[in-house]
Design a protein that fits this description.
Layout: H1 17-34, E1 48-53, H2 59-70, E2 74-79, H3 91-99, E3 105-110, H4 115-120, E4 126-132, H5 138-152, E5 159-163, H6 170-181, E6 185-189, E7 205-207, H7 210-216, E8 219-222, H8 238-245, H9 249-253, E9 260-262, H10 275-278, H11 285-304
Helix pairs in contact: 1-11, 2-11, 5-6, 5-11
Length: about 300
Amino acid sequence: METLQSKHLLGIKDLTREELELIFNTADNFKEVINRPIKKVPSLRDITIANVFFENSTRTRLSFELAEKRLSADVVNFSSSGSSVKKGETLLDTVNNILSMKVDMVVMRHASPGAPHFLSRHIQANVINAGDGTHEHPTQALLDSFSIRQKLGEVAGKKVAIIGDILHSRVALSNIFALTKLGAQVMVCGPATLLPKYIKSLGVKVTLNLREALEWCDVANVLRIQLERQQVRYFPSLREYSLYYGINKKLLDSLQKPITIMHPGPINRGVELNSDVADSDHSIILEQVENGVAIRMAVLYLLASNTA
């Protein structure tokens, strides 16, 4: 396989294991590029890409923008906070106006699940989902699995615990799809109020006990408590959450084996992770950030060469 089957990247659920491996192998090549003294290649020199973000983002937007510029694409950045969206303009009107400027690809983040899917049915440009509500965040899951592959040699057979706010996390859902397709075992861990009712149907193990999850896993992917998505209180206080589900060095040192710590960012230091863990040798959080650029370069390159 040398190309992706779809012209869009809307979710991990739509990808095959072969497509995941293709993206990883392509990212391996781009990782070499971004570690050279001259970090640009002319692969997308004739392509114009619009980053259309209807939700706040720092890491994802900057990572996509850097990936696009490393590939020599022309880049247009759109943020809803200073736009006509505030005046009532619809999603389709907004994007059609951007497409009238002859844009070839749209990278989109939106608070509504399914927004990129809606868009892909109405426009000719390639659409990449940079996070849609609590649904999926495919490039984050790709870079997470890629980082595990880089650290541990392969993903198949590894035990990965996803810990924290599973209910509101698009990262968790995309990671579950990616990891299970790649042959990893997955366990989710968090308070019962932050675990979706359907979670067992995805073929994952479930525990409410943090120590049990950490003793079981090779990798702990720790998620942020997403207070901005929570309309009701799911636990008494952040202090209590930290007491039962926060990971500190003392807890890690008490385990019988070393485990790898990941986090999609931004970290609530002192809540889900203490600094003595986030900044420790256990952590590959900064490697995830670097790998994010290579993965997004790979996705952009593969989609741009695919006009299916």
